[in-house]
Amino acid sequence: MRLIALKEKPSRSRARTAACAASLFAATASIGPGSPAAAVVAHPPAGEALASASQGLDVLPFPGTPDAAPATNIDFPAIPARQIASITAMGSRSGLHSGRLSAQPAGHGTAFTPSRPFTPGEAVSVTATLRTPAAGTASGAPHATRLHYTFAIARRATVPVQSSSSAGILGATGPHRHSTHRFVTEPGFRVPVVTMGTNRDHRAGDVFLDVSRSVQSAAMILSGRNHLVWYRPLPKRPLSSAYNVERQTYRGQHVLTYWQGHGVCPPCGGEGDDLILDHSYRTIHRVTAGDGYRKQGTDLHEFLVTRDGSEEVAYVPLWSPVKANLTSVGGPSNGTAFDWIIQEIDIATNKVIWEWQSLGHVPLTDSYSPYTPGQPYEYFHMNSIQQLSDGHLIISARNTWTVYSIDKATGKIAWQLGGKHSTFRLGRGTRFYWQHDATLHRNGLLTLFDDGAAPKEEAQSRALEIHIGLGRHQARLVRQFTHSPPTQTAGEGSAQLLSNRDLFVGWGYSPYFSEYSPNGAQIFNGSFQPPIQSYRAFRDRWVGMPLQPPAIAVRASSTAGRDKVYASWNGATQVVRWRLLAGASPTALKAVKRVRRSGFETEIEAHKAKYFEVRALDSKGHALPHGTSAVVRGA
Predict the structure, then answer these.
(1) Can you name the residues that pair with 447 across neighbouring β-strands?
(2) Other C-beta atoms within 10 Å of 182: how many?
(3) Which pLDDT value is given to residue 55?
(4) SS3 of residue 297 by DSSP
(5) For 537-547, what is each residue's pLDDT tens digit?
(6) Distance CA 379, CA 359 (A)
């Protein structure tokens, strides 16, 4: 399949498709929201404006997209259904497609859903007749009453993949030699030991981590004093991992989010779903890929929950192996490349409302990743997405060494930082390699994690603050942050700017996370035992209020006449003390002791009794909701 960039002219085959559509179907149809839509085309009357793809239309798939999914919708994000008079969707092999119009959620325009999939490898010609010139103007074609554009359908390739466990990367598990915490009350937990230095910034909150390359993959939260707050192990069968554990905001409430699935290589990404949990750790939404990618699922590298207008949306990456012409990078004309895709998904309905394909906008030759004969080409490797308020997205692509600004309305690249075609002059120290987690802040400050490997391009990995000036097109290094002791990270990593201007850094493949003051001093450090890693690391305040009761267990004490009672409450953040109750029967329990909580699991020694119970107390000594354990027998 020939890869067609946005600025190229339509190919001859696609021009013939449009001509066939015009000659074979010269009828009109009136359609409305939710009604069947005949795919038709009408000749424009004299004086009617016709808009072509070259004008940068606000339509999906974007004009010139080389590899849309066969099950793709055709979307008009700026046009309500009542403004569309007729639609033609003509496949060069599959012919005319009928379908149905429906309104997208929260005013995101109109979707035309074909009644059957398109054929892999074919060109699709779309013509929409509009009722008013204002509709054309809203779609990027001033005063036009007809929009016409073409895109192509992917020929999906089959590639041999390895699960993360057999590949030895991503979420790998196995008989690694490292220490784990064991708890009497949670015997199934294998929590990796974390070492933390003195933390000078207790107010910054808890530490959010994902655990991989351990005996047990898990999502985890630690307090700033290195106490386990919450731990959720992932099942080994099917093999699952968690990535991107962080606090976000959904409908005005703090929520816990992360990706769950299994890693595959190539392209060293993931196949899974994204979860949103409330403060009681209940899954309130499972965000899945759409428009033909549901079976594969979303990728592990990013999960952004935000607002688009009045609606709560999520941005997720995914990847697709497709047939592509690789001669420009020394490969075959019928090779395989990984296309990286962004989907914006309405969380309430799980509908795709926006989509972008890297192969439609970034050429293969922009990559620094060498082509390996006989292997699918992983040229892009997207690893972060950020929505801006001006209608643009900021994304990071590891293998092109570039941060991109994308105009959502047209899909076109507004500017590039780094790589082979940087819009900005790169000042001393601003060049980065194999980077992750790019975030643009106010006043042109951009943070990112500069891996510098692999293969190795720099002596050690860095977190960077770079000022980018759009006026003078100049990038200037504000500050760089390196780890002590020095470390070289072969992949992953994150850089989070905290509210006090400290920078919190996750070192990816290297088993560290650390915090830096604005002057660059490393004021805090935490570490796993190798080979454990966390894809990203975040700091935030978190309040957890589980609905399940606390866990309790009793063991005989070495002291005669006494028992040891163990209490824990996974995920509870407001427990300050435990009240121990004991008695001769489950219905005759009395308070016998009150102790201060000590870490995740508190050990309480007490006189022997037939039955025990514990109750969780807050800072004022009040019993917490759902904070009473089951009644258990003494040892």
Answers:
(1) 439, 465
(2) 12
(3) 61
(4) coil
(5) 999 999 999 99
(6) 10
Beta bridge partners of 566: 553, 603
Q: Where in the chain is the domain with CATH 2.60.40.3780?
A: 12-152
Confidence band for 607, pLDDT divided at 50, 70 and 90: very high
Q: Are 434 and 452 in contact (CB under 8 A)?
A: yes
Q: Which residues, 6 or more positions from 483, have their beta carbon under 8 angstroms from its beta carbon?
A: 460, 461, 505, 507, 510, 512, 514, 522, 525
pLDDT in tens, 390-439: 999 999 999 999 999 999 999 999 999 999 999 999 999 999 999 999 99
| DSSP one-letter code for 136 | H
pLDDT of residue 4: 25
Cis peptide bond prior to 238, omega within 30° of 0: yes
How confident is the model at residue 207, as a pLDDT?
A: 97
Return the percent helix, strand and coil in the chain, to nearest 5.
10, 45, 50
Measured in residues, the chain has a length of 635
Residue 220, token pair as written in the block: 């985890």
Q: Which CATH class is domain 12-152?
A: mainly beta
Can you name the residues that pair with 100 across neighbouring β-strands?
36, 113
**Phi and psi of 541, rounded to 5°?**
-80, 140
The Cα 263–Cα 403 span in angstroms is 24
* pLDDT higher than 50, residue 316: yes
DSSP assignment letter at 71: T
The per-residue DSSP string of 549-607 comes to PPEEEEEE-SSTTEEEEEEE-TT-----EEEEEEESSTTSEEEEEEEE--SSEEEEEEE
**What is the longest distance spanned by two Cα atoms in the chain?**
102
Alpha helices by DSSP H, 145-207:
164-167
pTM > 0.85: yes
- β 50-51/146-152 pair status: parallel
CA angle in degrees (0–180, nearest 5) for 305-233-439: 30
- Residue 19: in which H helix or E strand, if any? helix 12-24
* Contact present, 242 and 210 (Cβ < 8 Å): yes
- The residues near 313 (Cβ < 8 Å, ≥ 6 apart) are 305, 306, 307, 344, 345, 346, 347, 353
Domain with CATH 2.120.10.30 in the chain: 162-540
What SS3 state is found at 501? coil
Phi-psi region of 233 (alpha: psi -120 to 50; beta: other; left: phi over 0): beta
Span 551-633: which CATH code? 2.60.40.10
Residues of the chain with CATH 2.60.40.10: 551-633
Q: Which fold has domain 162-540?
A: Neuraminidase (2.120.10)
CA–CA distance from 361 to each of 59, 285, 445 (Å)?
15, 32, 25
CA angle 170, 494, 501 (to 5 degrees): 160
DSSP element (H, E) containing 213: none
- Which class for 92: exposed (0-12), middle (13-18), buried (19 or more C-beta within 10 A)? buried
Interatomic CA distance for residues 416 and 421, integer angstroms: 7
